[in-house]
Amino acid sequence: MTKKKVFIISHSHWDREWYMPFEQHHMRLVTLVDNLLDIFKHDPDFDSFHLDGQMIALDDYLEVRPERKPEVAAAIRAGKLRIGPFYILQDDFLISPESNVRNMIVGRDEAKKYGQTVPLGYFPDTFGNMGQTPQMMALANLKTAAFGRGVTPTGFNNQTGDADYESQYSEMWWQGPDGSKILGLLFANWYSNGNEIPVEPDKAKAFWDQKLADAEKFASTGDLLMMNGVDHQPVQLNVTKAIKVANQLYPDYEFIHTNFTDYLKTLSEDLPKDLSTIHGELTSQETDGWYTLANTASSRVYLKQTNTKTERLIENQAEPLATMAYPAKDYPHDRLRYAWKLLLQNHPHDSICGCSVDDVHREMMTRFAKSREVGRFVAQDALTLLTSRVKTTDFDASAKPFVVVNTAGYPKSGLTEVTIEWDRRNFSEAGTIQEQRAELEAELAALPELAVVDHNGQAIPFRVVNQEIGFHYDLPKDSFRIAYQAIEITIALNITGLPAFAWEAFGLQAKSVAAKAVEVAPTTPSNDHELSNEWVKATLEADGSLTVTNRETGKTYHQMMVFEDTGDMGNEYIYRQTADNQAILSTDFPMETTLIHDDALGAAIKVVNHLQIPVSADETLIKEEKAIIDITQRTAKRSAELRPLDLTTTITLGRHSKQLQFETTLNNQMRDHRVRVLFKTNLVTDTNEADSIYETVTRPNHPAKTWQNPTNPQHQQAFVNLHDAENGVTVGNIGLNEYEILPADGTIALTMIRSVGELGDWGYFATPEAQTQGAFTFNYSLELHDGSDEQRLVSYHDAHTNQVPFSVQATGHHNGDLAAAGNYLQLDAPAFEVTSLKRANESAGVTLRGYNLGQAAADLRVNFKDETPQVVNFFEEPLADKAIDHLEPAEIKTLLFKDAEVK
Asked: To 10 degrees, what angle do helices 22-42 and 69-77 make?
């Protein structure tokens, strides 16, 4: 009789920061690794320790114990300490596609320094798993992924459900939307099913009787996986002794202290043919809906907003600008890697999810700031160099040239601002600082009427935003700083259809200088209640809601931009409406409106909605929190005391734009509540589409029959969409990652802010800063389209490009090797969403990465110096069987151009 094998893997799931500040966890990590290095020396039967799949734990340890690096390296080479493949254990859905990839690249690169990595995509406690995981693992040379959530069977937060998310075994095939398939391992009894194994025979017998039965209930083979550890668990020093006891007690089993590499090798040889296949994203869709943890997408929303802006800065500005500006030898790989590592340190699931104690999230904001400043430095330095190469000598000698660059991967339109230095006085020049300022003030008062011209001398519409005298300084690379005062003129202009990775030069000059007349298309007048152009008409109704008409189709939508406030007696993980179950709507309160401007650039209206809402939940909530009453059993209501909550929204419509843009500000001084903005579509449809990780994912509007949670929150990146055969609505956002579809009337509900007072989970941890009190600004957009795939994809691209500002730089008069208007590369691929343009890691080349936004195969046409690229994986290794000029549905594609010097 063949013995069943029990594979025992020692580990500790290491949340870098969570219910204690980082340094508290950090010091315990030092003790853990110290103990490991000791046990490696003194217990020859101790096979190895799995360091939770994340390389950052080694960085953290060696920061305190640098003298032990040789011991650590020796333990890794000997297979005692098992590392990688990731840098951190991230939250899939709340970071960008590129952040997910860079986590793998940085993790692989860090692990290579030591010589080996665990060949396993490791997602033990990710709050849901992205649907593109199979394809992404394949593109990182990983054939297996292990995860703890999203699929039945399991003994943690899941119940039996639909076949797409149900497996008869803890081993299964996992297939992505593109057809990629990998082996999936579910921690069906959690990643602690072999924790703290008793040594005493009687206790060991009781322990193993239960644990073996639990594992065998789900295992597809006789290879039983036991995870010897749990969150922040110290290493079990006597685990090998406990294994010897187990082998004595159970002669029909072989208990082995082992590692994932050996376990996966044996498992792969024993797998049966009847494994289930699960499909797409795994987010506990077929449960009661209470513990999907999707509401972490709105917890501490300021983290999400800051993360999105930092990602866009590094991914979509600093890297493309550096690629376009520098020769390969000067590309700032080191600075960008530093910025990425700082950013990734904020991406673990308990960090970016906003579900830790206040100290953790305060430290995150410092990391964001550091990463952002590095990104700003790289982007500005590259932009300055790039614009110095653009020929500007065709502008009048009196003009002040500036260059606008689109670093998004799709043609971009919209308003941009630039501040032009009209004249300056260096402190080192004659006269006192005060005398210099007086001269500048006189010049400012006598400024001529101004004009903006393009590189062909055509005057174009613009708006003066501000004129002032400011103090600044230059920091030359070869001399001491130069302090000065200058007349600064800030202008706004409308850029229309600037291609991907393209630039165009403009000039600010006196209107008296000869220029071709401004060409302004006929406009539809706007007023303080209406915005209108050739595509869109938006009317502010008496109740403060917006009525929006698609002029192309004639379809009109009512009750849009309605603000909703509800009580929240949940926690950082989960929204739970207070027991009064009442929603406060902006349409029940007064509002006021002002026309900000209406000119050749477009129009904007300011709307102020004056709500009255409760100051907090009632006193019951704090009692229930301290008593650790599960949120599903709470009874708190909202306070009877009301205070004003004013929401000020600027609605902007560009003269030739299909997209309405919204900026809402509020000063939140209330607690225990949630604010959303609602867009009622009245579209009858069973599904919605949302921007996810390398995927436009289709999700059902109605939850499963097992669902008990009254709400159905979902994750998004840049947009969510509802459409039928004739009409559609796309709501975009910047850093607002939670939405919900209210299927009764097709309402898209976008969460702006959620205020709660505790962490939640396994105890009571007060988090007063999670009440998110203070001033906040929220940016989002609305684009209407017909039912065609073409227009829908355009709206998706527009939502993406709306997150990437134009890069604008004033410059001087100079010759250059770049024309006044040009492209770094030519991209013709309506379905291709670019996520990265950067210098290759392993060569002097350039990589372009993106994915198919649509559900159908599509063409991919990229021209870079007429060079034929290679299709490569995430590590820039060739993929010989992939077409260069074709995209399969949901395909992720990276192109490597080897000869990448611009001439």
From this structure: 60
Q: What's the pLDDT score for residue 159?
A: 41
Collapse the DSSP code of 232 into the 3-class scheme (helix H, G, I; strand E, B; otherwise coil) and give the result. coil
The pLDDT value recorded for residue 153 is 54
DSSP for residue 300: T
Cα 411 from Cα 793, distance rounded (Å): 13
Three-state DSSP class for 706? coil
**Which pair of tokens denotes residue 515?**
């220029």
Residues facing 278 on adjacent strands: 174
Count, in order, helices (H) and strands (E) of the chain: 16, 45
Residues 6+ apart with CB under 8 A from 37: 68, 71, 72, 75
Helix (H) or strand (E) holding 302: helix 301-313
- Reported pTM: 0.96
DSSP state of 353: T
Q: What angle do CA 50, 55, 58 make, to 5 degrees?
A: 85
Secondary structure letter of residue 478 according to DSSP: S
Q: Is the sign of the CA dihedral 768, 769, 774, 777 positive or negative?
A: negative
Name the nearest CA neighbour of 785 among 730, 856, 732: 730
Residue 125 bears catalytic tag: yes
For residues 78 and 677, what is the distance between their CA atoms, to the nearest angstrom? 56
Distance CA 655, CA 653 (A): 6
Catalytic residue among 60, 125, 178, 568: 125
Strands 171-175 and 277-279: parallel
pLDDT value, residue 728: 98
For residues 681 and 729, the answer to whether their CB atoms sit within 8 Å is: yes
The stretches in the chain having pLDDT less than 50 are 154-161, 902-903
Is the Cα dihedral 837, 794, 676, 749 positive or negative? negative
- For residue 837, the tally of other CB atoms under 10 A from its CB is 26
Q: Are 444 and 489 in contact (CB under 8 A)?
A: no
Q: Which has the closest alpha carbon to 614: 577, 654, 651, 664?
A: 577
Q: What are phi and psi of 779, to 5 degrees?
A: -115, 130
So what's the pLDDT on residue 842?
84
- Distance, CA of 796 to CA of 803 (rounded, Å): 11
Reading phi first (left if > 0) and then psi (alpha if -120 to 50, else beta), residue 811 is in beta
- Check residue 644 and give its pLDDT: 98
Tell me how far apart the alpha carbons of residues 614 and 709 are, in angstroms, rounded to a whole number.
24
Q: Which residue is it, tokens 């590392």?
A: 83
Which sign, positive or negative, has the C-alpha torsion 861, 863, 866, 871? negative
pLDDT for position 160: 43
Please return the burial class of 607, using the count of CB atoms within 10 Å of its CB with bins 0-12, 13-18 and 19+.
buried
